[in-house]
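Researcher: Here's a chain I'd like modeled. Treat it as a single chain, no partners, no ligands.
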Amino acid sequence: MTKNNEDLFKIDPKSKLPLYVKIECNLRNLIIDNQFTEGEVLPPESELANLYGVSRLTVRHALEELVRQSWLSRRQGVGTFVTHPSIASIVPAKLSFTEQMVAIGRIPSSKLIANNVVPVNAHIAIFLQLHEGDPVIEITRLRLADDVPILLETAYLSSARFPGLEGEHSLLETESLYAYLRIRYGVFITGMDQTLKPVTLNAEQARLLEVQPGLPTIASEVVGFLSDGKPVEYSWSVASGEKSEFYFRFRKSGTY
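Model: Modeled as a single isolated chain. Structure tokens:
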């Protein structure tokens, strides 16, 4: 069936996003919706520029972003082809792993490794504003994208604040933890502090992530906050360096 390009390649003129971002989102959604299959070639830059009503430079910027994210590949003198990401882009600006994976068209899931009440150690107690030895719920999950292990994550939450959470098992494999906290406890995590540092995977981490031990990766330490600034969650995670990447986008706001 012949595609009507004018119906497919459209951006919202009312959106305040930069033009190249709007084009990037449109193209990604077309791929996710199977309007273009893997291996199919996109129209040339000049045609896309006419369809979107923008410059070729703007189209090229959007295409380069999608190539970087592995949604597209380019062959010099041949064209731009549809691929599918072989890695998951982990975007710190997104608050949950589930949100991150949905945003790039991957299917998120989790495998629960542990869900227990333990005494909090001094390091984590500081972040959660608790006393050393206070009971906390320790939740360790293997996070997957399209059934591929991407992230090994352990979260800590106050047992007193979230009674019964340690008894939930199946839900923590199918639901976003942040979404579950909103639904069951009325707790909305609206912000986070994140620290990243390079590490190497130990044997147990590598086994769960299905990679070789000793591989370099990034460890992430996150503290989740309510809108009033109170901390409610501390977590650490390690990512599979072979199957994921961290993606940062910074923009200057205002003038100074």
